[in-house]
Amino acid sequence: MSDPSFSKLAQSMTFESIRALNDDMATLATAVEQFPKELDSTMQKKVNRLIDITQEIEFHATSYRNALMVEARENRQSLISEIIDVLPKADERQSVGSSVFWYVLAAGLIGGVIGASLSVIALHVLA
Asked: Which residue has the higher pLDDT, 94 or 8?
């Protein structure tokens, strides 16, 4: 029940051509065996690179957020100091009613600065 074309092919082949065909098949089997290992190695390198990039982005985002928080805190303290410096001078020159206005204005400004700072911090924490 063998195929007649196969027997003709087998009769026409020399021992050297059969040996070369056998070597080629062994090489092909080795290459096919190595393919999943190479693919896995390449994929693992790409995944590791993505993880490295993600960690670097996270580090820079955290550093940027911390720098923004420090800058907001410094700006808030600077503005509060300036307002406090202005208030006694205004109080000395103006009446009691006018000084109340300045205190209310200062309290509103300080509240606005604190609220804005907290909003910026909250936006960066949530981002």
From this structure: 8
